[in-house]
Fold these 4 entries.
Entry 1:
Amino acid sequence: MKHAHDLVNASTAWNELAVHLERLWNQSAHSACTKYAPDDIRFEREPLGPNGVIRFLNIPLGSRNGITLPSPDEDPAFASADALHDRYSRFTSLDDFLHYYFIGMSVLVHAQDFEALAWEYFARAHADGVVHAEVFFDPQAHTGRGVEYATVVDGFVRACRRAECAFGMSTRLILCFLRHLPVADAAMTFGDAKEDLMSGRLAGIGLDSSEIGFPPGSWQLIYAQAKDSEIKRTAHAGEEGPVEYIREALEKLDVGRIDHGIRLTEDEDLMKEVAQREIMMTVCPLSSLRLRCVKAIADLPIRKFLDADVAFSINSDDPAYFSGYILDNYCAVQEAFDLTLDEWESVATAAIVGSWCEESRKSVMLTKLHEMLEDYR
């Protein structure tokens, strides 16, 4: 998510969206995921928020920027990095997570802070084999506390360029509106970002943060303006919120993707429509588990999506908060569903086809995927 998968405690965790080429199972490191050992292409959505928060607690980022985090007396979770990490394992809801997410975001002030945060994510993603990353970020969370929009974007763009040069990783940035803030504020942000969206510096728009009580249709006018300008559109819907939010996002926002979307199976007619229209769901297994949207990974609609020909990708979401980067999410799904190689091919192909990179880049990744799969047939 959404939802706002952007922050951990002292940094910025992204709304990540990424396609991966990496070793999916490693006999020694992931013994539970060893039915195959293929390299796989993945599509991962991940928020740029305090993703590296625990590491950043060991770096005087807050102190350098004059930001005071809560004291242990105010919140025992801030007694140490270990205490904070333990608290991250006990989120009770999306809003509980967002409370810590936005505290963590507060230490980001200068462009170099945003660059450092994004770079930490890209370096970790590269280690997991990511070759294309589409990452969400929430400028309103920063502009609302006095940080300039350009400061946020400039820092993230620098990190994207570094990742492209150092890792050969193609990247895209997706600007998300915070649904718990007034729509008028989102309209101002859209105006600030319009030039970057039109130029391609930003890949498109999304909608995240608190889902329940904030139906997506409220942002219809902004999304209509984006459509008129041929700007790509997605939205978080149907994770904590009802399946009706998915329908509303499709009908009123005319989105081309749905982030999360795990409640789609509650409306069979809508699920058939989504399959026919090839609307991709970007599923984030471990975050949905940690946010208690499901009781177990096995409760996710992975098998139902496959059986109904619903296109979906497996992604990480605020991994520093939810203790799950992309490979962890893949292994969790494999352990729960025991997917076949052909089923993983379907997931990986959908991830690539549903990405927002250019067709030539998709072609390269599809070719790599098919070449890899032949080694395991």
Entry 2:
Amino acid sequence: MATIPINPDRAKNNSPYIEPELVYYGSYKNEKPPIQLRIATDGAGQSGLMRALADKFIDDRVIETGCKPFAVSWIKSDTAGSFNNLASGAADLSITYHPAAEAIAAQQGFTDRSVYAWRDHFMLIGPTSNPAKLKPSSTTSIFDLFGQLFRGVVENPAAVRFLSRYDKSATNVKEALIWTTIALAVAAEFGEYTVVDRGTWWGVDKRIRDSMNVFMEQHDSDTDQTMLNPAHALDGTWGKFKDVPNAYADWTIRDDGR
């Protein structure tokens, strides 16, 4: 849902320009083709997922449709910012994780389509020394492990620590945009437990991964899906190249997109 006034005419004809964090060109980097798709999101860009998807989408679309090469840009923004960027016309598509807010966005009229694109898979990780003495098993839930963590902190507060983003204030929201890039290094250095998505985990240096254990990781087939976070691709209503965000949303749920 947007927290800014909705102005369709301005969004269509005079949308604000936001400097993209990165621009992806697929196999056409030397040509520097024009941007035809602006995607507002946060973690998917930081983990490298957005680059992988955008580059493959560009190449696939040029081959399949015969269209001219084009570029995709990433507008770095938290969830609230992603809704507002879509509403203002600064973005053509946003990746969001809040179904209730997505429903309100549709009512506000600045998105006309929502596609269940993917799910972030989160992991509970911690130091190999395991000071909390976590005991994961096939029947252990994430709530059980957090209970064990709590007891570990109570019994040994100097050794057992949990690293949280704690992004409640305006400053924390801004910090959260860069937090995932340093969180694992910090947790590894100080021997802390933390929760991280799979993309970020595999995107960090192997040295960091080797210093930590994965105590819980959930999969699509698991009955308990507490650690799965559904992501939706929202198509903006007023995009200049309306067929491109629509095609991208369709592509993400195709076999080659996945």
Entry 3:
Amino acid sequence: MASIHAYIDIPPHTAEAEVQDSEPAVALVLSQFSRNVLVTRRHPPILASPPMNTFFDILAWLPYGIVHFGAPAVCSIIIFVFAAPGSLPVFARSFGYMNLVGVTIQLCFPCSPPWYENKYGLAEANYSIKGSPAGLARIDELFGFAMYTPGFTGSPMVFGAFPSLHAGSAVTEALFMSHIFPRLRPVFFVYILWLWWATMYLSHHYAVDLVGGSLLAAVVFYVARAKFLPRQQPDKMFRWDYDYLEIGDGPTEQGYALANLGDDTHADTDEWTVGSSSSVSSGSMSPVDESSSIWEGETLASPSDSESKR
């Protein structure tokens, strides 16, 4: 990434003619392509151009400038408590890979945000231009101190509008929350729409940027769910209620013990056996050497054990 950034970076004092001569060809090609083909980079007026007043400014600021930064931590806590054990590392890796791929695309294919067109029209972009807080400048003015202006004007990622990582983060969080709480899926998707609107209202993203970020997040999530994410069991509320795991979309299930809450499950070792649903019901997923096990065979109950406890 550093080498790519060094390739496209141009010192601020460079003359405009030199800047235009030195621009990467990819930026020029993408600029022409976005003007001639990506007509969806124009804001839908009904979504992005309500009257600009304090009420709408705050309504847009909350998801874009506040919730966006705290949501990953809140979701991590919820996932740790209510999701099947092993879900939190999958969420963290999915979130990280989504952002890594998104930033790589932004570096390789720089694209201007709406505030650039609002400020400079369709003039060719150059890399001496500083970033802008756009609509968030009104929030700084409203509260009387600079929360966002210094960060956005000093950002090295001025032309990183596509894909929108705000949208990607919101979709990632909503999909994982929907995986845990399927009945609340409409609430989580209302949050996505709220953030989509906020990014356009504040002139930070076009609609196509939001679609791109959301699709990226969806691809990462569904790959993770199919291969790595433990399945939720309807009769379990907390992580501590699980006595075995079902990984991904396949039939494989994995033994699990309360003593292993903070560790990875040992599917690739000989401490636990892995099998299908029939192996769980037969009790074959208990520790292999039951005579030497500190759980004495009680970690995973067989049907007869369960009946006796009732």
Entry 4:
Amino acid sequence: MTEEFYNVDGTQGSWLGVEWDDPSRGVSKDPTAASFVRLSKPFDKSVGFLSAMRIKYGSESDVQADQTFNAIRIGGKDVDEVGFSLIAQKQSAWSNLKVISLNGLCLIGISSQPLQLALRRSAVAEVTGLGLRCEELDLSRNLLEN
């Protein structure tokens, strides 16, 4: 795999290209197959475990603060939110979740920042103290290294 900067015909600006050693990778199947990412496109922000949980499931304080009902528009018609607050309340009680799916949230680890050993132990203790009892944890499509 080779990384290089390219100017792609028919477009403006620079692109980061990854030229695949295996031609079956990428969109094109020719011997010089490559994938491209526009450099001006903002990258998704990486998050730690607790942030990913808040993004996906909210927190009990979020649910208590947001007790308003919002109108949803489906097919040009306004539909009232009914029961969503109950679902949000159940999801925000993390210790009751049987299945936790944090797939595709750019999760990089226990924290979004590299931590010294003492801070890492503190972060692990915080997650352990949540009392999670899930039976299934989906961490696929994330940025975990080890």
